[in-house]
Amino acid sequence: VEPISLGLALAGVLTGYISYPRLYCLFAECCSQKRSLSREALQKDLDSKLFGQHLAKKVILNAVAGFISNPKPKKPLTLSLHGWTGTGKNFVSKIIAENIYEGGLNSDYVHLFVATLHFPHASNITLYKDQLQLWIRGNVSACARSIFIFDEMDKMHAGLIDAIKPFLDYYELVDRVSYQKAIFIFLSNAGAERITDVALDFWRSGKQREDIKLKDMEHALSVSVFNNKNKIADTTQKQTKLASHV
Ligand SMILES: Nc1ncnc2c1ncn2[C@@H]1O[C@H](COP(=O)(O)OP(=O)(O)OP(=O)(O)O)[C@@H](O)[C@H]1O
C-alpha cells in the first residue's frame, strides 16, 4: 500500500469517526447519554446503597426518572435535599449523577459547587454572581442535560442564590439558551433539627420511621424556615422556593 493512499485512508477514517457522533460517543464521554437512565437501575441503586431514607428515595426516584423520560420538560429539575451532616445528601447526588452519566461526579457535565470553597468571601459577591451565571450559561449551552450540585446552601450568600433563580423558571429561553433539561440539586443542613424532631416524635409514639410521610417533613421544614428570621433561614427559604422537590 502506498504511503499516500494509506494516509488518505486513515484521514478518511478519522474524519468519519470524529464527524459521526454515535461512533465518537462509543469511545468518549458525550452529552447525549450513552444509555438512557433506567428507572429500575436507579431504584436498585437507591434500595441497595441508601439506607434509612425512604422519603428521599421515593421523591428522588419519581422526580429524576419522570424528568429524564420527559422529552420536553417545561422547566429544569430542581431538588432540595436537607438533613444533618453525614445523612447521605452528597452520597445520593453521586448516585443520581452516576445513573445519568457513567463518569458520575467526574463527568464533564456534572458540576459541584461548595459554598465555603467556591464562594468564600461575601465581599466578592458581585464577581461570584457574574462568574456563576457565566459558568451555568456556558455549560448548559454546551450540554443541555448538565447537572449542577450546590453543597452547603445554608452557607451560601442569599444574593448568590438569587443569581441562580432566573435559570430555574418556566422560560423556554434565557438569552437564547434553554435550561429546561438541566438538573439543579441543592444540599443543606438547614431544617435538620426539625427533621430529627419529627423522627423522634414518631419513635416516642411507637411508630415506625417508615410511617413518616412526606407531608410531615414538608410541614416541619416550612415551619422551621418561616419561624427563623435570620440570614440562614432566609437562604433556606430561598433554597426551598427554588426547588420543585424538597
Ligand atoms: N443514608 C445513607 N445510606 C448509606 N450510606 C450513607 C448514608 N448517609 C451517609 N452515608 C455514608 O456516609 C458518607 C458521608 O455522607 P454524605 O457525604 O453523603 O453526607 P452529607 O449528608 O452530604 O453530609 P454534609 O452535610 O456534611 O455534606 C457517604 O459517602 C456514605 O458512604
Automatic annotation (TrEMBL):
SUPFAM superfamilies: P-loop containing nucleoside triphosphate hydrolases. It is a peripheral membrane protein. Keywords: Signal, Synapse. Pfam families: Torsin. It is found in: Cell projection, Growth cone; Nucleus membrane; Synapse. Its main location: other. Gene3D superfamilies: P-loop containing nucleotide triphosphate hydrolases. Homohexamer. Interacts with TOR1B; the interaction may be specific of neural tissues. Interacts (ATP-bound) with TOR1AIP1 and TOR1AIP2; the interactions induce ATPase activity. Interacts with KLHL14; preferentially when ATP-free. Interacts with KLC1 (via TPR repeats); the interaction associates TOR1A with the kinesin oligomeric complex. Interacts with COPS4; the interaction associates TOR1A with the CSN complex. Interacts with SNAPIN; the interaction is direct and associates SNAPIN with the CSN complex. Interacts with STON2. Belongs to the ClpA/ClpB family. Torsin subfamily. This is Torsin-1A. It comes from Erinaceus europaeus (Western European hedgehog). The gene is TOR1A.
